[in-house]
Amino acid sequence: MPSFFSKRDLHFNLYELLKVEQLTSYDYFQDHDRQSFDMVLDAAEQIANKMLHPLLTEMDRKEPQLMDGTIRVHEGMKAITKRFGEDGWINATFSYDEGGQQLPVTVQNAAAFIFQAANYSASVYPFLTTGAANLIRSFGSKELIEQYTPLMYSGRWQGTMALTEPNAGSSLSDISTAAEPTSEEGVYKITGQKIFISCGDHDACENIVHLLLAKIKGGPAGTKGISLFVVPKKRITENGHTNNGVTTAGVYHKMGYKGAPIAHLMFGSDETCLGYLVGEPHKGLTYMFQMMNEARVGVGMNATAIGTAAYYASLAYAKERPQGRPITAKDPTQPQTLIVHHADVKRMLLFQKSVVEGALSLLLQCGLWADLAHVTEGEAKERAELLLDLLTPVAKSYPSEMCCQTTSAAVQILGGAGYTTDFPVEQYYREARIHPIHEGTTGIHGLDLLGRKLTLHGGKGLQYLMEEIKNTIAEAKQSDQPQLLDLAARLEGALERVQTVTTSLLNLAKQDKELFLADATLYLDFFGIVTIAWQWLKQAIQAQKGLMMTNSEENRNFYQGKVATANYFFDYELVKISSLALRLTSHTKGTVEMQPDWF
Amino acid sequence: MPSFFSKRDLHFNLYELLKVEQLTSYDYFQDHDRQSFDMVLDAAEQIANKMLHPLLTEMDRKEPQLMDGTIRVHEGMKAITKRFGEDGWINATFSYDEGGQQLPVTVQNAAAFIFQAANYSASVYPFLTTGAANLIRSFGSKELIEQYTPLMYSGRWQGTMALTEPNAGSSLSDISTAAEPTSEEGVYKITGQKIFISCGDHDACENIVHLLLAKIKGGPAGTKGISLFVVPKKRITENGHTNNGVTTAGVYHKMGYKGAPIAHLMFGSDETCLGYLVGEPHKGLTYMFQMMNEARVGVGMNATAIGTAAYYASLAYAKERPQGRPITAKDPTQPQTLIVHHADVKRMLLFQKSVVEGALSLLLQCGLWADLAHVTEGEAKERAELLLDLLTPVAKSYPSEMCCQTTSAAVQILGGAGYTTDFPVEQYYREARIHPIHEGTTGIHGLDLLGRKLTLHGGKGLQYLMEEIKNTIAEAKQSDQPQLLDLAARLEGALERVQTVTTSLLNLAKQDKELFLADATLYLDFFGIVTIAWQWLKQAIQAQKGLMMTNSEENRNFYQGKVATANYFFDYELVKISSLALRLTSHTKGTVEMQPDWF
């Protein structure tokens, strides 16, 4: 079995790049140290190897089925769900008071990445429960917290986020699920339906707890009238549990991501369905954004994990498969060479490595910002929060879009074999394709970045990011390494381009708002490439330091690989901003003026 | 059912762009006229609508299975195969003497495109038989022609191309299937195995005729020792037919393209397997290139057809699905707008339209060159042959690579629905992915273009292409349309870039051959974009003429769409050459110098 991730790279990120041990100087994390972090990763690796990865293919082939009103998932999920609960993975980052381990989000995310790379579908179940429980503990009443969260932490109850409706996919202001007050305060009658609910129903748990958006009758129109409810499949009564009028209308059959059940649910269609208000009325969307933002970074991580698994699968193949001969030594009487020696194959491997390792370091950096936002105060807290907020669309969309391409490169390296079900890369290719869609399509994130985040808080998030990048450039310039000086100069040029393009677009915003946002998706792409180039410069700086300090051949190879991949990213990926900048500053109106009848 | 292709666009290509009726001035095509061409397309449309498209989804879900030594395909294929034979589709372009209709390849390809867009898998069966029969009639003995081709034309016997082996995928010089002479002249004993053989075995025909590459024992090493054989599954005897020692070892299970059976075959492993030499010994690869070149243009057409079907599926959805509101009118009390009005959705539709219609016009142009090469002499013939030869890697690879992206855009337009099996776009996405792999991977075609075709015949092919493009630019410049003048100027700039980049690379070839070819795939991409931009300038010129001559609203919409899409291609796609040119002229050695241990 080829490995599906690199623990060495996770260690590089946590300890060399992010220096995550420094978090232990804060009270909340004081009981941890590098050893405890290592143990977390080792434990994750063990579960991934023993429980998750062995079911990867099988869960793809035996998809969930709706039978007698319940979705039946792969039987292996029962043991996996139990294990995630028992070992404390669901609430690991929460406080000791809540039964958690006060683990940094950065480390938890690194562990989750291992699960995701092993078996993306299986990794989704606990992740959703964590997010849902986190919403209840953040905004719910003491009673809701006590009733729901312990059973969710234990893995016995599944959490979900129930947002999307048939007539309101990307447009949440149009949801029509209704909540009608009952005589009991905080308790509402829910009617409506939700679609595309991940883990919305299944038989590997005892109950499902939906964190559901609905409109309280008589509330304001649009997003301002949305409230958040806890809607369990079985509601708690004095005598135990009773059905709560949540009906599973269907399970979706999908191109990939088949091991996780995606449900179509009806609320209150047959029996009464009760929902329990979380926090105040009409503030539901604000609350939900906590879970959505976590989920968005999570989706970026999912995409990166799938891309990483595909990279290692194609690398293993390239190192084993003889085919063809060197360009300069074509003698057919000589044995064939391994394909890993062909420049075009190395290009496809470097492409994958540069994207997935570049994305991973950004995503773990996002985890660190989440931790810092939690334990710091004042400007440090604000900086961490605004950087995380600004870069969430990038952290979600860059890996989501690019890992469709990297998994495609993995398929290409295997050739005809890659297109067959004899190898896992075709599954990775299918699974990767969900990520540009769920948790906000790439188009939505483009609008979020260009239309909102750039100028939010007076543009302070962008200002902080520019400072961070300039600090990295300054650090590179202090070295005497010609390669680092070269990369620093190129990133500096790219930053000037970001400035030019952004100014050009923000000026346009005043004249023509539709045209300003028409290419927001391409702006997101542009901005994402520069962000990942920054991550690669950070990695290259650290790798050069590593090279000077190590004598081990394994470490030398690792660091040389980092430097070479940073160069690759600048040579092949960063150059793409030239064309994007041309497009983004030309302001032609082709898409805006296109008429439906002309298609 | 949304339509899956545009007959209007086929007519535009055949009659307005290519003026294919002019072929009827040549003797070979003299019995045809526009009316007979129209009838061919109408007949194809009828079969596509009634027989092929209805089985699209079902053939994906009920994949071929190997049972009792034979691959069982969807039962509907029997009627389809029969119909293709009876209606003369397999040998339509061949001479009257051969039972054909002397139909221009251009028109035949347009009809095949309709079949492919309706149901790619089903369209493959007759296409392979045509190619195999064409090899026999071109290079085989009179006896072989008489014995095999009539039953192939009738659809009763399936033809294949049997090249790939377990240890020789892209590297044909390494095939090891052996041919040992028997006492009978031209008859050889075949032993070996072949993998990935499309339609290599199935139960919707009476016999399978493999056009197989093997090495005659004692022949030269490498590609110079390859010979071509007819190897039937059942060989012809005095009393009828007998098994010929061809065993089906397996059928591949694949990500898509599931309706066509891809076989792993053993020759001569149990019983004697006889092969009949086609043409002279050791010339097999040269012969096979006739079928491979046809198949390569065919693969480009397949990719384009799938991309076209996905485009129309996503267009139909975009015109029906209300979601969200205009950027400048967000009032949630107002009804939602159709997503076709969102600039980002229009961008994704224009992207698809620009790629698939740009590729289609190049592919039909290739068909016309094939026809002209057939019926003309002297320089006209040479021009047609060299242009077709030069652009075959582009015609194969540009649509193959890009339709992975366009079908992805189709999925994205449908959002979550696009990821489910409730809509056909996820199938199109899976089916598109085979094309960058089979009939030579994109990497192989990059090497073919940059390392061979550019400089072949003293660079005459490239010279002819430049003349053609410059003629188009000159025609645009003669108009008084500012849009055409603008596009012409931009294409002129792009041509200068092709010149600069090509010169830079060819100079490098003298110093460092490995580095010269290291980014050949990117050069192919670069060259392909400029080629398609040329096709779009041709289309825009013709559309502007059309706009001046028509009063019908439908025609106006059609031509406006063409002009808008040409602009889109130049604004969003042609700009990509800036970044590619930067990469292709920098000559850094990152991929060449990358070491396997650094990954």
UniProtKB/TrEMBL annotation, chains A, B:
Cofactor(s) of this protein: FAD
Domain (Acyl-CoA dehydrogenase/oxidase N-terminal) ranges: 38-155
Keyword Phosphoprotein: no
InterPro entries: Acyl-CoA_dh-like_C_dom, Acyl-CoA_Oxase/DH_mid-dom, Acyl-CoA_Oxase/DH_mid-dom_sf, AcylCo_DH-like_C, AcylCo_DH/oxidase_C, AcylCoA_DH/ox_N, AcylCoA_DH/ox_N_sf, AcylCoA_DH/oxidase_NM_dom_sf
Domain Acyl-CoA oxidase/dehydrogenase middle: 161-267
Domain Acyl-CoA dehydrogenase/oxidase C-terminal per the UniProt entry, residue ranges: 381-447
Keywords for this protein: FAD, Flavoprotein, Oxidoreductase
Domain Acetyl-CoA dehydrogenase-like C-terminal: 465-594
Keyword Transmembrane belongs to the record: no
Gene3D superfamilies: Acyl-CoA dehydrogenase/oxidase, N-terminal domain, Butyryl-CoA Dehydrogenase, subunit A, domain 2, Butyryl-CoA Dehydrogenase, subunit A, domain 3
Family of this protein: Belongs to the acyl-CoA dehydrogenase family.
The name this protein goes by in its record: Acyl-CoA dehydrogenase
Originating organism: Runella salmonicolor
